[in-house]
């Protein structure tokens, strides 16, 4: 509370300086002031270039390019910088992170953000995964309870975490609502807002004593204060997002959702809205309540895109000239020279994490292979789906499904590592099988939608062929399919927990974020509602292996094929 009060006091001084400027007459007919805003969202500690689908960006023409990696991102930020530039994050910088960051309490990620000169960040739901006190430690520094594991000391973020709608139970602010940065001599107000439904996606223990209010009300209140202080150019870092129906980084093919509603309703005083949370890519223009255009933009996740907004600011009014705002998403390609300072930080984190690789996480009685039976069922696929269901039971999950392309190797009984006994599963073994660091998400589907998901396992191709992608399923789900039935009508029966699935029934289904984003053609999974985030798939897998020692290949009795 004391350190927060100090930050609030410092903010008051900064805002007062902005207010003082209101009395300074501007020169007539001055040219607009160019200010560039660069933002990212949902970085999730991806210091190394992310692999698989998590490390690719789909372009408007349907092709994709590899993207991401902190050292590449740092270079792109530097190349994008102009004379007047501010750098922001829309939240979820940490949490659900790969080993090289998570092993060190995500301190390397905070250091990375310091290195690239971040000016402010919204608080995302994953910032609170480890509780409010850990968020304060990330902000102000100090070692974790088990000591400083990455460096001898941890100084914390050099930029403020913002949450205008986050309070304590007594109504007092639990974080700075906004900050003011100066660029080109102009004050720029920055408001941070996490989703109001944060309690539904975060452990109750982690946010005990905290409340989250309506996003629009919080934005409008902060915008009014900034306006009265003479801050006319205002940016919102919104940790809430919408889904899309395909499209490239600079398309606007969003499905109507909470972010769009907030962007349309928020105060006309707001000039730009950077979005996050949904891990989607879009570059939209929305109309504010006064009829003026403003960008609503999100840059996918894991550092694959940088959202860039170029403002023209009237030096007389110190407000953005809306009609001259230009926004785009920039792909963080890997064809640039990695920033040496950030690369050294990443290399240190990766090297120091290496000893974890040979840590035993479980034991097996024989090979558990990824190869599928004629029905489409895979022994290893069964295990992974069971692990994902067990990991998300607390979110009410009833069923889990896994994409077969995400299973990258077999789980072999014979050891390939000196000193590791046969039958021992190491962390490295598990990582090789589940390397993509996808995040598990639990969503609600109707029975009809669940059937439609299973029907999408057979996908007609332009050449007349049918591509088969058999989802791997948890033991709670059983179904029968007919090989002779037409595509779209092959599923003949489905049960969940032994009970027939009804079309209008409601079922909580877990899948990774690749699938819930419509990956591998499973577009129906994008229709799920009430999405709740979970663990990284690898973490769920290793936890399951640890809890089920001497694991044997499960019987292949979940999927039945008929003529």
Short description:
The chain has 563 residues and is an alpha/beta fold. It has 13 helices and 29 strands.
> Which CATH class of the largest domain applies here?
Alpha Beta
Question: Can you list the strand order of the major beta sheet?
Answer: 6-5-4-1-15-16
Q: How much helical structure, as a percent, in the residues?
A: 10-25%
* CATH hierarchy: architecture of the largest domain: 4-Layer Sandwich
Task: Give the class from helix and strand content and strand pairing.
Answer: alpha/beta
Q: What's the number of domains?
A: 2
Beta-sheet strand percentage?
25-35%
Please summarize the sheet with the most strands: 6 strands, mixed
Quick check: average pLDDT? 92
Number of strands: 29
The low-confidence runs, each spanning 5 or more residues with pLDDT under 50, are 12-27
Contiguous helical run count: 13
CATH topology of the largest domain: Purple Acid Phosphatase, chain A, domain 2
C-alpha geometry: globular
* Rounded Rg: 25 Å
CATH superfamily of the largest domain: Metallo-dependent phosphatases
**N- to C-terminal distance:** 68 Å
């Amino acid at each position: 509370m004391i350190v927060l009060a100090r930050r609030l006091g410092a903010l008051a001084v900064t805002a007062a300086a902005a207010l003082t400027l209101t009395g300074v007459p501007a020169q007539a007919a001055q040219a607009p002031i160019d200010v560039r805003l660069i933002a990212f969202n949902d970085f999730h500690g991806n210091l190394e270039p992310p692999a698989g689908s998590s490390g690719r960006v789909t372009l408007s023409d349907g092709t994709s390019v590899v993207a991401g990696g902190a050292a590449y991102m740092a270079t792109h930020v530097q190349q994008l910088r102009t004379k007047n530039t501010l750098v922001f994050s829309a939240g979820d910088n940490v949490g659900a992170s790969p080993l090289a960051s998570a092993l060190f309490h995500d301190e390397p990620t905070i250091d990375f953000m310091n290195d690239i000169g971040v000016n402010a960040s919204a608080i995302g739901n994953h910032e609170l995964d480890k509780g409010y006190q850990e968020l304060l430690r990330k902000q102000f520094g100090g070692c974790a309870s088990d000591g400083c594991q990455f460096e001898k000391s941890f100084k914390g973020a050099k930029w403020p975490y913002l949450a205008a709608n986050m309070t304590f139970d007594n109504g007092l602010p639990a974080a700075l609502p906004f900050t003011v940065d100066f660029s080109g001599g102009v004050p720029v107000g920055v408001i941070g807002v996490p989703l109001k439904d944060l309690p539904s996606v975060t452990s109750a223990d982690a946010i005990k004593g905290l409340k989250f209010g309506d996003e629009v009300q919080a934005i409008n209140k902060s915008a009014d204060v900034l306006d009265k202080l003479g801050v006319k150019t205002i940016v919102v870092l919104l940790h809430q997002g919408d889904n899309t129906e395909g499209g490239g980084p600079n398309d606007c093919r969003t499905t109507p959702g909470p972010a769009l509603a907030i962007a349309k309703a928020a105060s006309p005083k707001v000039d730009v809205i950077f979005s996050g949370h949904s891990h989607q890519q879009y570059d939209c223009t929305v109309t504010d309540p006064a009829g003026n255009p403003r960008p609503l933009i999100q840059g996918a996740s894991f550092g694959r895109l940088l959202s860039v907004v170029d403002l023209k600011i009237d030096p007389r009014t110190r407000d953005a000239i809306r009609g001259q705002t230009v926004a785009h998403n920039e792909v963080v390609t890997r064809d640039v020279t990695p920033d040496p300072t950030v690369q050294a930080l990443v290399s240190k984190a990766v090297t120091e994490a290496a000893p974890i690789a040979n840590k035993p996480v479980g034991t097996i009685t024989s090979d558990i292979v990824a190869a599928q039976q004629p029905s489409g069922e895979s022994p290893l696929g069964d295990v992974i789906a069971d692990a994902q269901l067990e990991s998300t039971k607390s979110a009410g999950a009833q069923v889990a499904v896994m994409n077969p392309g995400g299973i990258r190797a077999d789980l072999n009984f014979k050891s390939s590592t000196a000193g590791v006994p046969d039958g021992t599963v190491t962390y490295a073994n598990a990582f090789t099988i589940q390397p993509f660091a996808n995040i598990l998400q639990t969503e609600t589907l109707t029975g009809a939608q669940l059937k439609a998901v299973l029907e999408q396992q057979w996908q007609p191709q332009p050449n007349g062929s049918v591509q088969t992608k058999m989802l791997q399923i948890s033991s709670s789900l059983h179904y029968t399919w007919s090989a002779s039935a037409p595509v779209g009508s092959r599923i003949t029966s489905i049960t969940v927990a032994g009970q027939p699935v009804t079309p209008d029934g409601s079922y909580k289904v877990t899948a990774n974020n690749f699938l819930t984003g419509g990956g591998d053609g499973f577009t129906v999974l994008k229709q799920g509602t009430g999405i709740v985030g979970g663990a990284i798939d690898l973490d769920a897998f290793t936890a399951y292996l640890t809890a089920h020692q001497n694991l044997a290949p499960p019987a292949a009795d979940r999927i039945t094929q008929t003529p």
